[in-house]
Here is the input.
Amino acid sequence: MILFDKVNKRYPSGHQAIINLSFELEAGEMAFLTGHSGAGKSTLLKLIMLLERSTSGQLLIDGKNLSRIDRTQIPYYRRNIGVVFQNHQLLFDRNIFDNVALPLFVSGLRPRDVGRRVRAALDKVGLSGKEKMNPIMLSGGEQQRLGIARAVVHKPKILLADEPTGNLDPQLSEEIMGVFNKFCEAGSTVLVASHDLELVSSIAQRLLRLEKGFLVEDKKTV
Amino acid sequence: MIQNRRRNSKSSSSLLSGHDFNNQALINRLQSYFYSHYLAFSSATSRLSSLPFRFLSISLVIAIALSLPAGFYVAAINLQKITNITDNSNTISIFLKTTVTQPQIELLKEKISLEEGVENIRYISSQKGLDEFRIESGFGDVLEMLDENPLPPVFLIEPNRKFQNNTEFIKKLVFKLKKEHLIENIQIDMMWLKRLQAISLIGERLSFMLGAILAFGVLLIISNAVSLSLDSRGEEVVVIKLVGGTDSYVRRPFLYTGFWYGAVGGILSWIFIAIAVYWLSMPVEKLSALYQNSLELEGLGFFGMISLVSIGVGLGLLGAWLAVTRQLSGIESK
Here is the structure.
């Protein structure tokens, strides 16, 4: 589903963020991406999101070569991907329902199907019944789960998360990771970037460790 | 045979349902397309109405910028109208010597009216001329102070419609008439007409020039206003792009914002012009009556209003489009 083949990313400033990176993630597989900050985790996710372009190497997502996707096709490509951010990226000028419904409206889903899908997504993350509330009224953990609901409401093939447990206490973090696990079991390909090695090691999944742009470790945790 | 027919009817019905399905898919697509427009429209409208003062003040600035060239245009078409009215009464005034006698006048009138190209000839005696002047000029008191009538008897000649604008012909006619010893002087009411035409042409050009400059101004105003609201919604634009929104999806609500600015600006400017025309029409009609004309001041009219609002809307859409495109090019990695 995700295939990196000798991918390099050099920023215009000269900083080499990803160096000769190769790995493959099968459909339905889940992996953690760890490393210190500045190791290239975020850049790797940005390459998959097409927020950045690789400088060299091949990057295939669901069989599609990303270098062949031009600017006008990017929005349609991104509809196959759900992303969870550390800072949630929620919109506080609208209620919870409208936040979650955004990816559906954007992709032109019929209004009558939107309600059903939004409620299903909120149900999965344990926020059902709060549709009319403003996200600002939610706790940190709830806001993160709302972010996840928005990332999965359009049933993406790939789910990416960038430090999803960054600001959460260990118990909430484990809860969030459990939610990701559930989506993996439901068939999504999940890639979670996290510097919290302790938490990541406690979950039996594949682990990719980056250091200064190099992939230095690719193993299965116990 | 029956089986065959049944099979046929079955296949045709499945074809029909396939057709129905396609139709249904199209209807769904259209439905969601219009729904997204409805959402964009209502979000733009509610945002604007939540800041009514800002919306109105920006629309007013746009209205003022549109009113200036539109006002010049109205002035130019009215000047044009004056020259058109006077075109038809492009008369030649023949001033006779004050010593002419009545029989001489009758004879001369007969002679001139037989000239080629003379459509109509009217005689104004010096007494009648004095009376008209007293009534129309308002200088009656001054005239009382004069011992004798200073005005000569006058023939007013209206040239044939065919020769109306033929300057060469009129010059020839004047040359011929000048040979008459009873005629003191001949005047053609054409110079001032030409001047007026030149002025109205300048007015028209000025209105286009001003229009072009101020249209650019309106474009900047609207694109600035949209940029401002874009800045405060930068996060939303980023999120929409991240979840797979197309550029046109991002642009849509802002295009409606630009639409409202342009449309309301255009309507306000039309109202300004209408008020100005109404306010000026009385004195202008008075003035034109003094010149023996019945000029009714013309406003923009229905077509003018449609054009003005369309220009406003067009500039609004273009300004908003430019603002959002500039913002989007900053977000997306090339």
In short: Chain A is about 35% helix and 25% strand. Residues 94-154 of chain A form one domain.
